[in-house]
Design goal:
The complex is a heterodimer of chains A (321) and B (253). Chain A has 11 helices and 14 strands. Chain A is an alpha/beta fold. In chain A, a hairpin with a 2-residue loop joins strand 9 and strand 10. The chains are: A alpha/beta (321), B mainly alpha (253).
Chain lengths: 321, 253
């Protein structure tokens, strides 16, 4: 559905995106992960035909973004980082305007507007001015705007940034609900977001492609580094004992404390021999020592830091035809 | 075609979402109304004196012509207020990203916006022109030269509005867009002054470039092809620059 080959974008002296290639299949939710300034927005702006690349090619549904922008634009719904809203319009007026702009026939416009308002849960504020809406509502109006012409591809630039936890959950659910009909690319610098929503992850940093794999593969990479939180079942925490229990677990090579002891709980990063999934053994030995295992998770943060750090080399992969 | 209409319609509504549209209509009507009152008052006194000496004063010459000239000058001050928000506001709000990623061409977008500005100006002129109706009730003016005068006003505004539209694409700041447009419009207007004391070729060129030197014939009720061509070319130049500026926006941003 989306193909990017050797994409490069240079602003004056600054190389924003450096020879990136990837392909996304129809119906997938793909997370575009990277620190701020990694080149996520730039790549998205090329895909949406907002601007042309310096070198390389990008195509959506078989149409080249430079040669056939009008075909690409018809098939793409785009939510920029700041939703492109007109504060003086009501939600209804705004969505009608965008719908007309995206080429929805006048006869279907009212019906289509009502549909997306329902779907994005903004029907209750449809007559209100956008300037009077909360940030969560504005984000949802932004999403409604992106899906109004029922595009094949949805491109969402940091769709949950600046929202409160409840709004983040609502927005994530909404995006997941859209997945069946649309191919979705969403950018984020938050790992949990990718974990919560995406099937495939594209990691970029400093304008370079660092990894492109399924979420399961990414998590599998992390089994060698596990984060645990431990609490004694009763009595005071015996710190040396806890550490010893972890160190003696088969396959574990290093145990590092992460953070202070708080509320009688302690956190460790546990590294095992490479490729070895030590999670089962860790759980068994902790429980056997009469300790509570509050949390045990793959150290995604560590992978993220490794992948986006300066040591990791860029990968240039062949895009399947 | 539908895209042009969509954009134009949205822009016209935008003028009236905020007080800007009402303010422009009111200010223009108020100023022209005051001018009308003065010109008619003066005409009534002068006309009475002329009658005593057996002469006759022409309404077209002494009322309509100066009023249309004044409308052109007042328009010069208000045109920056019409165009300054057209692109600067979209850039500031980030809605330019919506427009540039929608399946419409740059040409459709800028023509839609320019058209909305022309309609806004036309509404201002139309509102103020109600004054002229009274002349027909109490006098016997010739309506043809008057219509030519209005045609001149629209042609002149079309050209200045296209330049204002271009200037609006170059900044996020409405005030900068408005002030620059005002400066450019005023300079284009006053260029003709050099012809008053200088006869060299450069002075002739400068005077030819002035929007005012091409307006005079319209106020006399004469449609001169070279003046029409001047305004139409200037309009195309403004729209062309706007298109180029939008294109460079894509490359740079």
């Amino acid at each position: 559905m989306i193909r990017v080959e050797g994409l490069t974008k240079r602003y004056a002296q600054n190389l924003a995106v450096d020879n990136i290639s990837f392909a996304v299949e129809r119906g997938r939710i793909v997370g575009f992960l990277g620190p701020n300034g990694a080149g996520k927005t730039t790549t998205m702006r090329v895909l949406t035909c907002f601007m042309p690349p310096t070198a390389g090619k990008a195509s959506v549904a078989g149409f080249d973004c430079v040669e056939k922008p009008e075909e690409v634009k018809k098939r793409i719904g785009y939510l920029p980082e700041t939703p492109p809203l007109y504060p003086d319009m009501s939600v209804d007026e705004y969505l009608r305007f965008v719908g007309a702009l995206k080429g929805i026939p006048s006869a279907e416009l009212a019906k289509r507007v009502a549909e997306v308002e329902e779907r994005c849960a903004v029907a209750d504020v449809k007559n209100r001015l956008i300037s009077k809406l909360s940030k969560g509502y504005r984000q949802r109006v932004g999403l409604a705007q992106a899906i109004i012409h029922n595009p094949d591809v949805l491109i969402l630039d940091e769709p949950t940034s600046g929202l409160d936890p409840r709004q983040i959950m609502e927005t994530r659910d909404l995006i997941k609900g859209l997945a069946g009909d649309h191919t979705i690319i969403l950018s984020t610098h938050i790992l949990q977001e990718v974990e919560a929503m995406c099937e495939q992850v594209i990691v970029i940093a400093k304008g370079q492609l660092r990894a492109i794999e399924t979420l399961d593969d990414l998590i599998a990479r992390g089994v060698g580094a596990v984060d645990v939180e431990i609490e004694p079942r009763e009595g005071e925490l015996n710190f040396p004992l806890v550490k010893q229990v972890l160190e003696k677990t088969p396959g574990v090579v290093r145990v590092t404390q992460t953070g202070e002891v708080r509320h009688n709980r302690v956190r460790f990063a546990v590294e095992s021999t490479s490729g070895h999934d030590a999670r089962g053994d860790i759980a068994r030995s902790v429980v056997a020592a009469n300790l509570n295992l509050n949390e045990l998770r793959s150290g995604l943060e560590k992978i993220y830091l490794e992948l986006t750090g300066s040591q990791t080399a860029a990968i240039t992969q062949e895009v399947p035809a | 075609m539908r895209n042009i209409f969509t954009i134009c319609n949205k822009e016209i509504k935008s003028y009236f979402y905020s007080p800007v549209g009402y303010l422009l209509l009111t200010m223009f009507a108020l100023i022209i109304g005051f001018f009308f009152w003065n010109v008619v008052g003066y005409f009534a006194i002068m006309g009475a004196r002329q009658m005593q000496s057996g002469g006759n004063m022409n309404v077209n010459e002494f009322v309509i012509r100066p009023l249309i000239q004044n409308m052109s000058v007042v328009g010069l001050f208000l045109i920056p207020l019409i165009t300054m928000r057209l692109f600067a506001e979209e850039k500031r709000q980030g809605t330019i990203e919506l427009l540039l990623t929608s399946p419409i061409t740059d040409a459709e977008m800028l023509i839609g916006k320019w058209l909305s500005a022309v309609i806004m100006y036309g509404a201002m002129v139309g509102f103020a022109a109600i004054n002229f109706v009274f002349l027909f009730a109490y006098s016997n003016p010739d309506w043809k030269p008057m219509l030519v005068g209005f045609l001149g006003l629209m042609l002149q505004a079309g050209a200045l509005l296209s330049i204002g539209l271009f200037i609006s694409t170059t900044t996020k700041n409405q005030i900068i867009a408005g002030a620059t447009t005002f400066g450019v419009a005023l300079l284009l207007w006053t260029f003709e002054w050099v012809a008053g004391y200088e006869t060299a070729t450069w002075a002739k060129v400068m005077s030819y470039l002035s929007v005012m030197s091409h307006f005079e014939s319209f106020t006399r009720g004469v449609i001169d092809t070279k003046d029409v061509i001047y305004y139409v070319s200037l309009t195309f130049l403004g729209l062309f620059l706007t298109a180029r500026s939008l294109e460079s926006l894509r490359w740079r941003s």
